[in-house]
Structure formats: C-alpha cells, structure tokens
Write a structure and sequence with these properties.
The protein contains 7 helices and 8 strands; from the N terminus they run αααβαββαβαβαβββ. By secondary structure, the chain is of the alpha/beta class. It folds into 2 domains: 30 residues; 188 residues, Rossmann fold, CATH 3.40.50.150. The protein has an 8-stranded mixed sheet with strand order 3-2-1-4-5-7-6-8. Helix 4 links the parallel strand 1 and strand 2. The structure holds S-adenosylmethionine. S-adenosylmethionine (SAM) binds next to helix 4 and strand 2.
C-alpha cells in the first residue's frame, strides 16, 4: 500500500474513533471544530447577542453556525474562506483569500462605520515542509490579522486566533500583547493532544489609537 493510502486509511480510522467527530455527526453539525469554539466561548464568554463578529477561515461553517445561534440579528456575522461555505441564515459569507486587501475591504465595508467586537480565526497557512517558509507564512497570517484588528476592532474588543507551537509563537504572542490588555493561551479539549495547535485569546483591545507598546498580562 502506498504511504499516501496508508495515511488516508489512518485518518479515516482516527475520524471514526474520534468522540467529537461522532458527536458532531449525531448533532448534525458541520465540523468537530465547533466544540473548540463552544468550550472557549463557555469559559470566556466571547459571543453576546449583539456582537459583531468576523470568522476568518470559516468553511465548512461550524463556528459560524455556533456564532449565529447566539447572535440573532442578521448582518452582524461575516464568515470568510477561500473555499466555498454552504449558506447559513444570518451570516454573510465572503469567499476569498483573507490576505487579499480587497477581501479585507469587503469585510470592513459590510459593517460600514460600525466596528467589530470579535475576530475569530481558525485559519492555518498551507504547510510547505520547509521550516523557515512555514514560520514566515504563519507570521504573515498573524500580522495580517493584527492589522485587520487595528483597523476594524472596537476598543475593548476580542480576538481568538489559531496558532502553532514553534519558533515564532513567542513573538506572535508578544505582538498580541502589545495590542490587548490580556493574552491567554487556550488548548481546548477538542483540540487533538498530539496537534501543535492552540489558540491565543486577546481580550481588551486597546483601540485604534490605544497604547501599542504596553506589555499585556500574558497567561
Ligand atoms: C480548520 S478550517 C476551519 C473550520 C471552521 N472553523 C469550522 O468550524 O467549520 C480552516 C479554514 O481556513 C481556511 N483558510 C486558510 N487560510 C486562509 C486564507 N488566507 N484566507 C481564507 N481562508 C483561509 C481554509 O480554507 C479552511 O477552510
């Protein structure tokens, strides 16, 4: 058997054993990753019924589904992905690359003069296997999220972003620390223990004119 077939078979085996995959199927949810967001939301109270929320890397849409179950007012939730996302009631889906400035402008235009309360990102850059390139791509993605927050997040706003253990994590965390009062590292239970992924939760955005050199409390 080719190694690709073996990897594929192992993936199918893991998926069928995975408690969260089974639970998502039973509940008719779009992806197991919803359990990560649900846990962080439960612990830290991210989403309010009147929140304006942007979900970056939203396909297939389980995070958007959760957000839309709390935010009842249509037009307050925008999901962005380069892949197609099946339509969801109360959610504006924008298909495109978040790194493209035209896509970021579309998101901001959607909200007009209103600022965003919560930016979620479950995006991960495609891995090339070349360490230096992968680290640079991870940094580029986070820098883009940070500058998007700088331009459109409300003072006191929140960001939750997926990152990976690695050389650039300390720098990324410190960049968030310069813009948010508190930065918390979260590894939700549904995040596979062997995965290097974790989430940075930035609370209390200093605001567009806020302090940018103050160091935050980093937990
Ligand atoms: C783990 S999936 C997200 C799952 C989603 N949170 C859910 O619960 O359904 C990550 C997504 O990020 C998207 N993505 C990665 N980089 C992106 C980029 N630069 N622009 C837009 N989408 C991106 C991928 O296409 C992929 O669909």
């Amino acid at each position: 058997m080719s190694s690709r077939k073996k990897r594929c078979r192992n993936w199918v085996k893991r998926q069928s054993r995975d408690l969260y995959v089974r639970q998502a199927r039973t509940l008719g949810l779009r992806a197991r990753s919803v359990f990560k967001l649900r846990e962080v939301d439960r612990r830290y109270g991210l989403i309010r019924p009147d929140s304006r929320v942007v979900d970056l890397g939203c396909a297939p849409g389980s995070w958007c589904e959760h957000v839309a179950s709390v935010v009842r007012d249509p037009g307050r939730v925008v999901g962005v992905d380069q892949l197609e996302t099946r339509p969801l009631e109360g959610v504006r889906i924008i298909q495109g690359d978040f790194l493209d400035p035209a896509i970021q402008a579309m998101i901001r235009n959607h909200f007009g003069d209103e600022l965003i309360d919560l930016v979620l990102s479950d995006m991960a850059p495609n891995l090339t296997g070349i360490h230096v390139t992968d680290q640079a791509n991870a940094r580029k993605l986070q820098n883009s999220i940070l500058s998007f927050c700088r331009a459109g997040l409300s003072a006191g706003g929140t960001v939750l972003t997926k990152v990976f253990e690695g050389d650039s994590l300390a720098e990324i965390r410190s960049d968030y620390g310069n813009m948010f009062s508190r930065v918390i590292s979260v590894k939700p239970e549904a995040s596979r223990s062997r995965s290097r992924e974790l989430y940075l939760l930035g609370k209390g955005f200093h605001g567009r004119t806020g302090r940018t050199t103050r160091s935050a409390k980093v937990c």
